[in-house]
Amino acid sequence: MPRILLSAALLFSTALVAPVASAHKVHFSKQTQPTPVVTTDLGNGLYMLQGRGGNIGVLVGDDGVFVIDAQYADMAPGILSAIDGIAGDTPRYLVNTHWHGDHVGGNAIIGKAGATIIAHDGVRDRVTVDVTRDFFGQENTTPALEPEAWPVITFNDKMTLYLNGQTIRLVHTPNAHTDGDTFIIFEEANVIHTGDLMFNGAFPFVDITSGGSYAGFAAASEKILSKTNADTKIIPGHGPLAKPEDIEGILTMLSDTTRVLQAEIDAGKDLDTIVAENPLADWTTDWGRGFITTQNFTKLMFADLSAEE
Ligand SMILES: [Zn+2]
Q1: CA distance 65 to 88
Q2: For the segment 130-179, what is each residue's pLDDT rounded down to a tens digit?
Q3: Which listed CATH number (3.10.20.70, 3.60.15.10, 3.10.129.10, 2.40.50.140) goes with 3-249?
Q4: Nearest-5° angle of CA 81, CA 83, CA 89?
Q5: Burial class (CB within 10 angstroms; exposed 0-12, middle 13-18, buried 19+) of 128
Q6: Using an 8 Å Cβ cutoff, are 94 and 75 in contact?
Q7: In contact, 60 and 159? CB cutoff 8 Å
């Protein structure tokens, strides 16, 4: 896991937990990191759990506990404790939205607690081997996860589960945040978990080294939006609970910033010049929080747009 991602998740969790803590049940992890797990009841047996790392979705009921994403290993005991508090049970299924460490780090512990791990093929491809990536000019190796953390059921396009009165659609969208992303629809409850296909209120991070692209990210956003109506509750990968109009805002921002940067590239400017001139400065107030600063977003989008030419 690149250091930048780790610190990023910390920033996100700090920003997230404080404003909502008073309104929800709080369970504390017993590990060295005393990050609280904040539980939000979404109705119909569905919950959002927030701690350190990607937001977690939980569906409870007579058929067993279904969980989306696992944050970090040191968060897993607190997550299991929160789930036990809700359901009096351990997870039966765990779905990973993609392979990043702030979403799969707790896999082994939750898997050993009895969960069957499900993910897109691209997740298993990466967590079973050491992955070396170039990250903002620095080479970084993410070691393979231990075998207990590996998905044992994988799919390449879509999968459907029928549990606890919900039709649960797992939908893959190609080359977006990574090349192995899944978003999850709970049809009857009208709730969607986006994984990192949504960063609510922040510039989206696209992992180009894992096959991600901003065009794919926008296409994924459109696809998610097409599955919503005005009442849909959206659990984003990072940030507070979202509404469909929040995705519309992201699409507008992506379209506008892409147009601005493409004009700079078409004018023949190189990356250093563009970063120095900071043509996306106007977007910083609304989007420049968390780990993707305006400068990092500019660098990522420049690399992405340059690669497509
Ligand atoms: Zn991610």
Answers
A1: 10
A2: 999 887 778 999 999 999 999 999 999 999 999 999 999 999 999 999 99
A3: 3.60.15.10
A4: 95
A5: middle
A6: no
A7: no
Q: How far is the CA of 104 from the centre of ligand 1 (A)?
A: 10
Mean pLDDT score of the chain: 90
Phi and psi torsions of 232, nearest 5°: -65, 130
98 alpha carbon – ligand 1 mean position (Å): 7
Q: What b-and-e string marks burial along 69-91, b requiring 16 or more CB atoms within 10 Å of the CB? A: bbbbbbbbbbbbebbeebbeebb
Centre of ligand 1 from the C-alpha of residue 209, in Å: 12
* In contact, 261 and 74? CB cutoff 8 Å: no
pLDDT (0 to 100) of residue 32: 56
Q: What is the pLDDT of residue 137?
A: 79
> pLDDT per residue over 84-137, tens digit each?
999 999 999 999 999 999 999 999 999 999 999 999 999 999 999 999 988 777
Going from the Cα of 100 to the center of ligand 1, the distance in angstroms, rounded, reads 5
Alpha carbon of 287 to ligand 1 centroid (Å): 17
Question: How far away, in angstroms, is 206 Cα from ligand 1 center?
Answer: 8
Q: Does the pTM exceed 0.70?
A: yes
How remote is the CA of residue 267 from the centroid of ligand 1, in Å?
32
Instruction: Give distance in angstroms: CA of 282 to centre of ligand 1.
Output: 25
Provide the residue ranges of all domains of the chain, joining segments of one domain with +: 3-249
* Cα-to-centroid distance, 177 and ligand 1 (Å): 7
